[in-house]
Amino acid sequence: MVENVTATKNTNETRKPLIPVELTEANWRFWSFVLLALIAIYLMTLYQVPVVQGLTDPFYSPTILVLPLVAGFRATCYAYRKDYHRHLFNHPNACNTDVRKDWKGRKYTGETRLFRIENYHRYFWYTAVAILPFFYYDLYIAFTYQAGQFTLSLGALLLVLNALWVTIYTFSCHYFRHATGGNIDCYSCPVNKKSVRRGFFNKISAINHHHEMFAWISLASFFLVDLFIRGVAAGLSINPILLSFKW
Fold first, then answer.
1. Given this model, what pLDDT does residue 145 score?
2. How much is the CA Rg of the chain, to the nearest whole Å?
3. Beta-bridge mates of residue 20
4. Region of residue 104 (left: phi > 0; alpha: psi -120 to 50; beta: else)
5. Is the model's pLDDT at 200 over the cut of 50?
6. Total structural domains in the chain?
7. pLDDT (0 to 100) of residue 93
8. Would you say 186 and 155 are in contact if contact means Cβ atoms under 8 Å apart?
9. Contact 57, 141 (CB under 8 A)
10. Is 74 within the bounds of a domain?
11. Which of 2, 11, 87, 109 shows a CA-CA span of 20 to 30 A to 215?
């Protein structure tokens, strides 16, 4: 009898739909977010920004070729996962309430079914590292767009800050912290206590403590730089030359 109950339970679990309930229920937070994202993507496709005064919009640099990988890295990030599960899906709640049936039959679906993709964050991290050089190539173009001359404009400075924020966000990742030393069983052991790896791990841990802040700053930086370059392309005089000299 016990075996039959167990078999029935396993069969019911395997028949669960692939799409989590969070993606199918009426939820104005989530669906308004999706609508705004689709509108933004459509407008960015319709009104593309050319390279202007040496400035390459981060949304139209070579990284656009691997945009799904960039989106995958962000969407599976622990910082963003916490926010969209709590604020967009409102699940799970932090306290014992029955708002949306958290305690009466609705189980947490994070990292299960379609959300299993969240478990592949470490692989998306490698792709994020691989495309970082593109951001620095955009800096090279911004500095050298005038032949035989180094030019540092306000827009180029903003691109520098954008590249730095993205780099810090990428290397403050929880997975990178784990890879640099979080997988060691005994850091108090004499062989590891004063090792170079232990010191590096401690520094990454200090940065990792602010990972969520870097996640949102780097994301906001993309949009602010995009708006700035659009203003330059529209003819606004907002990109003064800060430093310039011939080679």
1. 92
2. 23
3. none
4. beta
5. yes
6. 1
7. 63
8. no
9. no
10. yes
11. 109
Using left for φ > 0, alpha for ψ between -120 and 50, and beta otherwise, residue 27 falls in: beta
- What is the per-residue pLDDT for 107? 65
In a domain, 59, yes or no: yes
d(CA 21, CA 198): 43
Tell whether 37 is covered by a domain. Answer: yes
Domain with 240, as residue range(s), is: 2-90+116-172+210-246
Peptide bond into 20 cis (omega under 30): no
Q: Is the confidence at residue 135, as pLDDT, over 60?
A: yes
237 lies in some domain: yes
The structure tokens listed for 168 are 């810090």
Residue 154 is which amino acid?
L
User: Which H helix or E strand runs over 7?
Assistant: helix 2-14
If phi over 0 gives left and psi between -120 and 50 gives alpha, with beta otherwise, what is residue 54?
left
**Residue 170 exposure: Cα atoms within 13 Å on the Cβ side:** 20
Compute the Cα dihedral for 115, 170, 65, 39 and give only its sign: positive
User: Band of the pLDDT at 1, cuts 50, 70, 90?
Assistant: very low
- In this prediction, residue 106 carries a pLDDT of 61
What tokens were used for 133?
A: 């050089």
**Residue 29 CB neighbour total at 10 angstroms:** 12
> Comparing C-alpha atoms, which of 122, 34, 25, 110 is closest to residue 73?
122
Amino acid, res. 233: A
Tokens of 56: 């390459």
CA 24 to chain centre: 24
